[in-house]
Amino acid sequence: MRDSFFDGLPTDLDLATDSSAQEVRERCSARELRVIETGIQHGTVLVVIDGIHLEVTTFRQPADRETQVNARDIATDLSGRDFTINALAFSVASQTLIDTSSGVEDLVALRVKAVGDPLARFSEDPLRILRMIRFGPAHGRTIDPATLDAAKALVSSLERVSVERIREELEQILMSPCPAAGIVTIKEIGALPWTLPELLPAVGFEQNRYHIHDVFDHTMAVLDRTPADRILRWSAIFHDIGKPHTLSTDTAGERHFYLHEISSTKLSWERMEHLRFSHDDMKRISSVVRHHMRPLNCGPGCVGLSGISEKPYPCGVHLRMPTHLQQLTPAKWLPLPTPLIPCLKWNNVKWPHQATASSPSTVRTSRRSVWLQGRVWAECSSSLRKPSLKTPKRIPVRHL
């Protein structure tokens, strides 16, 4: 009913009835309707009609999630719902709206408020604390002060919730219209230790003169600017969590975070394992995190590694020849010198933190670019894997 006021016909329909789940199953089966008994122990069955999923739940009295006590009427059922904006029903028989908790008023006011006693609602199911954030700040709504205070008081009860349910709720927050506002509220109520503890060191952690935000605020800014793709938004959350663990300061007092993408990859993988992500999602998200420092475009005339290697590499590491070398060097087979490229094999690699002005193989180094033996300009992240000691491949200059 909540979405019907703003988005037209809702995409999913929930029905409530005074019939038991067994009676609903028998009646639907008698009419040859498909029934999925995924939540029958909680008084819920899923009925599929013409491809539409209808969740049918028996009226229940307010109680914790594991307790099923049937009720006789819809008013009692609505009194146990989590928030007033979710405690709305439409009577099919009388064609009337049933609003026992002023839910429509709160919808209009863009306010999330618990039904009845907020402490009782959150005690029944602590996941409602994250649902409060999803329906609230993550969708541009405010939270009723009493409801917010109750959430703060019971935030530690999130440890009783399964990691799968926490992951699903976090993902819905990330896919909401205002994901950063949702994560910021998670931090403000003290829920990060039970949801995304890797973000805790990022709060207030200063970066360097190239950033105007600390690591946490920078992450939130990136998150809000990330397309609504679940893989990309999870990657945005994880991409800089390794920075607090890789801080170094040079002699001039400049702060650096060398190899932070490797640390971020490791930490994100561990968090995804804990939250029981699918292995495919873990690989995709960690790949984005691992390569987020690689430049996507080095300018005109660049080609990605997929153009010079049989195996394409993600996130576009690029090579280009300096203009003066393009004029002097004929199009012939020429070995490239020791660049920091994962698919090419070179001996005597000098990494950026090892390079000096007198280094024979690397002169003039920086974080993102290295001038190598006066012949090829290789732009890539300095955190790539160290190549194995094998004979270098030879690549035609014309392919560069």
Structural account:
The protein has 400 residues and is of the alpha+beta class. It has helices at 4-7, 21-30, 74-78, 103-108, 118-124, 128-135, 145-153, 163-174, 179-188, 215-224, 230-238, 260-274, 279-290, 323-328, and strands at 13-17, 34-39, 44-49, 52-58, 88-91, 96-99, 111-112, 142-143, 248-249, 255-256, 303-304, 318-320, 333-335, 363-365, 369-372, 376-379, 394-396. It contains 14 helices and 17 strands. The strands form 6 sheets. A 5-stranded antiparallel sheet has the order 11-12-16-15-14, with no helix packed on it. Strand 5 and strand 6 (96-99) form a beta hairpin. Residues 298-400 have low confidence and may be disordered.
Radius of gyration: 28 Å
Strand content: 15-25%
Number of helices: 14
How would you write the strand order of the largest sheet? 11-12-16-15-14
Helix content: 25-40%
Low-confidence stretches: 298-400
Rounded to the nearest angstrom, the distance between the terminal CA atoms is: 59 Å
- Which class do the helix and strand fractions yield? alpha+beta
User: How would you describe the shape?
Assistant: elongated
Please state the average pLDDT score: 76
Main sheet: strands, sense, barrel: 5 strands, antiparallel
Tally of DSSP β-strands? 17
